[in-house]
From TrEMBL:
Taxonomic source organism: Acetobacteroides hydrogenigenes
Compartment(s) of residence: Cell membrane
PANTHER family: CATION TRANSPORTING ATPASE, SODIUM/POTASSIUM-TRANSPORTING ATPASE SUBUNIT ALPHA
Keyword terms of this UniProt record: ATP-binding, Cell membrane, Membrane, Metal-binding, Nucleotide-binding, Translocase, Transmembrane, Transmembrane helix
Name this protein carries in UniProt: Ca2+-transporting ATPase
Family: Belongs to the cation transport ATPase (P-type) (TC 3.A.3) family. Type IIA subfamily.
SUPFAM superfamilies: Calcium ATPase, transduction domain A, Calcium ATPase, transmembrane domain M, HAD-like, Metal cation-transporting ATPase, ATP-binding domain N
Gene3D superfamilies reported in the protein's UniProt record: Calcium-transporting ATPase, cytoplasmic domain N (3.40.1110.10), Calcium-transporting ATPase, cytoplasmic transduction domain A (2.70.150.10), Calcium-transporting ATPase, transmembrane domain (1.20.1110.10), HAD superfamily/HAD-like (3.40.50.1000)
Lineage: Bacteria, Pseudomonadati, Bacteroidota, Bacteroidia, Bacteroidales
Amino acid sequence: MEEKPQKEWHSISSSDTLNALGAKETGLTADEAAKRLEKFGKNELATEEKSSLLSILASQFANVLIIVLIVSATISLILGKQVESISIFVIVVLAAILGTLQEYQAGKALEALRKMASPSATVLRNGQTIEVPSSELVPGDIAIITYGNKVPADIRLIESNNLQVEEAALTGESLPVEKFTQAIEGDSIPLGDRKNLLFMGTSVSNGRGKGVVVGTGANTEFGKIATMLQNTKTEQTPLQKNLDKLGSNIGIIAIVIALVLSAFSYFINGGTILDAFIWAVALAVAIIPEALPAVVTIGLALGVQRMVKRRALIRKLPAVETLGAVNVVCTDKTGTLTKDEMTIRKVYADATTFDVDGSGYSPEGNIILNGHKVKHGAANPCLIKVLTYGVLCSDAELKLTDEGWDILGDPTEGAIVTTAQKAKIDTEAIKKENPRVDEIPFTSDKKYMATAHSTSGGRMVVLKGAFEVVMGKCSMVEAPNGAQPLTTEVESSINSTVAGFAANALRVIAVAYKMIDEQEQLTDDALTNMILAGFVAMIDPPREEVKPAIATCKKAGIRTIMITGDHKATAFAIAKELKIAHDESQVFSGSDVEKMSQSELDIAVNKASVFARIAPEHKLRIVESLMKQGNIAAMTGDGVNDAPALKKANIGVAMGITGTDVSKEAADMILTDDNFVTIVAAVEEGRTIFENIKKFLIFLLSGNAGTVFAIILAFVFGLALPLTPVQILFINFIMDGLIAIAISLEPSEGGIMHRKPRTVSEGIITRMGLLRIMSLGMAIALVTFAVYYASVTIFELQPLQAQTLFFLTLIFARLFNSLNNRSLNTSAFKSRLLGNIPLVISSIVGIAIVWATTKIGVLQTAFGNVDISINGWLVAIGAGSLVLLFGEVFKLISKDKI
């Protein structure tokens, strides 16, 4: 059989398709079907290999920090320090479990896609109608499709009887698509316009049909999406990259310092190997911020909870922080930027254009003429007629729900009914007074609907549909004194009005009527010499809150790009109204993208504000181009076709209301209200979270640096090791962990959306940040070592007393350091002490635990602490408070912001 590129099946006749596939309308023989199954394989979508839980757990131990801690724990065990060894191993296990749980989020998008496939199919084999598993369908099979079926493969229709298919999941088209069998000329035809093809995974909503299978498995449109999903690799987030790099650097520093100090201890100071190992373990444990993985995870999780309150559901934890770096948002139009509610803005009747206010499907609103509301009872009779007849030729109904007004039926008809009620027309009454006796249903190829009604004046036909089609069937136009001839001059004036509406992306629906004999049948041929009653112009309007949100994005240095399946004119009109685009040169179509080389697309995405009539592969190319050029891109989507782009984007954003399961599984974030404003709120929250991560990182690392510097000073001055590994672990993991989590809850300092996004190359610790870490670390070291040195050499305290006093001073120095880091650039004295209640509570809890370690016997033994007098506590508090003053001086003299 001849193999033909799949995208061309729509362009040849059904008979040529059968010939190309070596098929007949009576179906394949069983033997031929078996041969083809052998050749083409099963009609199944790709599966995704998942890493096992065990392999993910094992990978956690490849981390440099974890390795250093394991070595330290092992050395402690060999040295007989069981408490220290067990403590370190507990930290290692907790870190590994946290990392495993965070990573074990297997991609379920492919599984969701597979669930959309039909389990069985009806085909002709050997001239007989049989049911087979859909996995056994092959190219050339003749499939029979009927109402309620899921389409089991990609099919070229050879028969169609009132066949309508729901393709929203694949193409984004919200209304059922009318299908036919004729060939469609052209190669680059969007999927939604290939109306002689059925696509795997879509659903038949009306009628029946028969067709030849032209694509199975990976060669279907769903299959292509599955392949794209499988081949689309997610990249590490900026935070993950930063933390991995930071962890490696800290691990290397820990190894180097521990080895150098151990060597000095053994070779220079003449200490034993045991002494060298004790110093090495203490330093390694002191350098590593053991609480960091837990604090980052908990901080991000708390950020997730805050985002839920702002209607953003985060599926993948690192996405919380990545949102703060987003500098491009690629957004759908319908339902995200717009209300997804058709709204009539203009009514044309009696050569007059009336404006309509109000929003959505609420009947609250007014008809306006020349800036004045048209009063009930004084409305133009021609206006009343066009709306009344529009209602008669509609099936939609308005309903009041708990969420507000909504419609049952077609959105276009719902807009007409809504406007009629704004004009105080009793829509239910006029339907009862003028009962429908016949109708011609709307079809996408005819572009009109017609109804016949029994009225007090006889039988009346009403025609409603696309303006150009209805106008072509009219010879008269409605006027206050009755119908008037549709002269060339009148027609030219009407066409000019319609052109003006179209230029503003308004969709025009015309209404016409005529009286017929009671016995006359309603047929397509009878729809001639109609009287044009008038027309309405409607649009899916932008959400009121979106325009200011886009303005906020601009202030924050974030580009907004509209990506839609709509036509260029409609897309540009909405984009212009929302201030996304100001010139048509910023608008590109799917066919434009199709023709572009990669370098041309790279140039286009930097210029574009709107992409219209876009196919799924275009969306993926666009986001790849943006990311390749160093952008952090957020991409919205709701259909199956959006899944690859959602998975590839730095932040994939799915719609919670209209989104498919496939899109939700591929996304990092789900908008529970499908609203663009929620994306902006999430970006703001992401920026705040990143700022707080910087704050607690500087807090943790400066505290660790202080401990390390103090230990080194003790070594240099020939003093005993001032801390045990258990004490260090308590400070690093428990005390600092609680405080760091509290810092992650700091509220935004304000003005955060007036800054430019951080660049991809910007590390989480900047040059100024590193300087601050080292400076604060040195301050902590100096005050704690000074107390330790004085307690040993001047006051000649017992070793355990001196060690306990050092422990207390270090605790308070790091607590005061937390106040330094509530704001990176503003004085701590300008931050309200009770502005962060969790920080106050964490500090009190931490101090209470420390007090217990100096008072309770079993804890004294475990920590190596002894009871300290009130004077000792006051010395520790006073010395520790000096770190706060040093932090203030640093902020005053540093010119660059962190």
